[in-house]
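$ ./design --mode recover --in tokens.txt
reading tokens...
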């Protein structure tokens, strides 16, 4: 049966080999059989530029490359953690970079896909941080720092954010429903798929008097979270890592 898969918020890092192993099993056993795979941001815990040729980065790129070469196109939208992933990594991974908001035709239903952080408009501090970190000149300067210095900066950020899953989830405010409806109306869709909040769920509501749906992908801290969409409907799946071995 044809289906398209969506994942987000894996936060892959060398310090969590269990997540990497679960991701690689998913790519080998499930993604290669899909019609398409969409990664909606925060694939990595932190990205410092495409010149970081770490074993993890090479392993992830190879998994995507194998998937695309076997006939499953891979699409990637940046998250708030991995917005430095660039064209070089995309080429090596055989994946297509998409803009931060994209409307796709999904089995007859126009669907808006995004990472989801722009929907959290009540978190004013984060929105300011997001605007600053997206400044092209700041990214240009960061990428021209020595790789070793960028690695130290990344390790410092990882150290400060090393908390339990619950604490990490508490850091992320939920979406603003008015902003959800505004962006969906602007895109002309009645279905939205996103990640970022780590609150997997399917929300049905009314948009301009018509049924609408928002599907939220979960994180991969202790289980996988995969959305499968096909002609027959949608299924938001979650399995503990031990169930995948």
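writing sequence...
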């Amino acid at each position: 049966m044809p289906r398209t898969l969506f994942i987000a918020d894996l936060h892959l890092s060398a310090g969590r080999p269990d997540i990497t192993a679960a991701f690689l099993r998913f790519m080998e056993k499930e993604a290669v059989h899909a019609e398409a795979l969409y990664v909606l941001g925060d694939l990595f815990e932190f990205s410092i530029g495409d010149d970081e040729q770490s074993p993890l980065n090479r392993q992830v790129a190879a998994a995507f490359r194998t998937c695309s070469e076997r006939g499953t196109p891979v699409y990637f939208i940046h998250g708030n953690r991995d917005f430095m992933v660039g064209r070089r990594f995309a080429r090596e991974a055989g994946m297509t970079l998409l803009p931060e908001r994209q409307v796709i035709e999904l089995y007859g239903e126009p669907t808006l896909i995004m990472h989801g952080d722009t929907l959290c408009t009540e978190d004013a501090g984060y929105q300011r941080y997001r605007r600053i970190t997206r400044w092209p000149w700041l990214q240009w300067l960061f990428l021209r720092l020595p790789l070793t210095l960028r690695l130290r900066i990344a390790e410092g950020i990882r150290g400060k954010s090393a908390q339990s899953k619950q604490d990490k989830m508490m850091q992320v405010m939920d979406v603003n429903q008015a902003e959800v409806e505004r962006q969906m109306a602007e895109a002309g869709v009645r279905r939205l798929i996103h990640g970022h909040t780590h609150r997997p769920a399917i929300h049905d509501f009314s948009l301009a008097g018509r049924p609408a749906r928002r599907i939220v992908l979960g994180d991969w801290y202790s289980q996988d979270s995969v959305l499968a969409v096909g002609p027959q409907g949608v299924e938001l799946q979650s399995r503990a890592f031990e169930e995948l071995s």
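exit 0
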